[in-house]
Amino acid sequence: MTSLRSLTLGAALALTACGTSSAPESEKSADKAPEASGATPEEAAAFISEVDAGLRKHWVESARAAWTHYTDITDEHAEALTKAEEASMAYQTEVIKESAKFNDVEGVDPDVARQIKLLQVSTSAPAPSDADKRQQLATIMTKMAGDYGKGKYCPSGDPEGEDCMDLGALEAVLSKAAEGDYDAQLEAWKGWRTISPPMRADYQQFVELTNQGAEEIGYADVGELWRSGYDMDPTAFDAEVERLWQQVKPLYEQLHCHVRAELNEKYGDDKVAADGKIPAHLLGNMWAQSWENLYPMLTPYPDEPKLDVTKALQEKGYDHVKMVKTAESFFTSLGLDNLPETFWERSMFLKPEDKDVVCHASAWDVELNDDLRIKMCIKIDHEDLITIHHELGHNYYYHYYYTEPVLFQSGAHDGFHEGVGDTLALSITPGYLKEIGILDSVSETEQGLINKQMQDALQKVAFFPFGRMIDKWRWGVFSGDITPENYNAAWWQLREEYQGIEAPIERTEADFDPGAKYHIPANTPYMRYFLAHILQFQFHKSLCQASGHEGPLHTCSIYGSKEAGAKLQEMLSMGASKPWPDALEVVTGTRKMDAGPMLEYFAPLADYLNEQNEGRTCGW
Ligand code: X8Z
Ligand code: ZN
Hints:
By secondary structure, the protein is mainly alpha-helical. Helices cover about 55% and strands about 5% of the residues.
């Protein structure tokens, strides 16, 4: 989760994180103010100060209930969470509506004016003011998130059967993709998608109810509300995302082309066509959003020393605490503070044996007072080492802005929040891993670097079209362009168009494959991750410059650089208090998002891919 606000539950906001939502200079939002409301700047300031206190109270109560429920899913906890959410949503809808009367008041203090704008985009699930409908909405949202968390595939059909597998067990099957067991992967892929058809009706109702809520606060639909959180007109934001996607698309197509050719060779024409879409279950990940697990079969130069961080972590006896301590040490090496003692006491690092929990990783500040926590089911592997850095990035943002007004306690925009930990993780170079004793030997050769680039690209470059399509789907659903009769077909159309992958078996409208991805039932907006994947390379490049790095970007690690840390800290402390271009400028000196640094980082791999793809027909 992220800020609750965007995270899961509707109204609550800023306390958990898989992201936060943010700030608009947008002209949109609740600007249905009556002409000349007669309100004064003093009234605006008094209003926002009351709202600050009101939101804190509601968000903390929601976050406490959410933490309790998602670390122990029970009917009783669900009920408590639904109640807290209902109250929070009621309050939020009311104050958002009320805030409209200050939209056109002249002479309002700029910080107050900004908080009013932020308030108007502060929910990702706006509730209708009708009490029954609001209750229905809160109930559905808790239910969908809990259903996902409890989801299991039971081949025998008996939900209590010995054979039941949770997401972790099914992902473990897919993570062995490089071994090439087509049928085992298909079974795991299909199996997880049995959890989501029951969510379909709930999701449809969720869309209707939140759209009503969005209209009440002045938006055409929920998608427009989400797109209004970026300090620009929502239509301009749409164009901005498309511009960035066009920048990264050619590199993705090269990667796709090479991966498809290798899979074609491994599985044969009848399973993976040489010129078609790739079956979605063969990419080593439940959603085909990251392909890193294929690295063992795609290693460009297999004779170089192995880049097997998972094996090294396991052989060196890393446990969950040591993994988290390692990530914390990266942040402190930059001169940032230690995590508070309470972090270690209150976090959930492991999946409990005897309880249902939401394992999807998240970072929290439950009490909004530096009460930092993460909630994860940590595995000892490379993927989770990176995810821990990701989560601590959220925590460090919380840490450096928790003294701000609550509406400023967000990322500059939500992509910033998602990009902080990832930025540090880009500095987990082979050299760094050797320095801290995880790897014993690393290759410093050109060939070794290409190996590392391939591993990175399978994570990062493969992600872009996925990050692009998820909310393309949701925006279509919220606007009505995608209707319930078309939910699944439209999903696969976008998967095919953007990712060049396809369902391995027939899908119909009896399926609800979007529901098998956490962020749909949890209602976490997803464009943030696409943006974060762009921004993290911009941050990385600028922090590398600050650290005095010389040489190509892909060889840089900012580990230990106090200069880089100081810049980062300055940006974190700003929270959402200023429009995001200001925050971007603090670190990078530019005010525009740009995929240039990402392309610069991957330049050596792009050459390698172009060579490999010579004579192949790319595209799908
Ligand atoms: O959801 C997350 C984080 C929590 S905010 C673990 N991520 C996205 C995902 O898993 O789909 C990080 C990368 C993309
Ligand atoms: Zn996150």
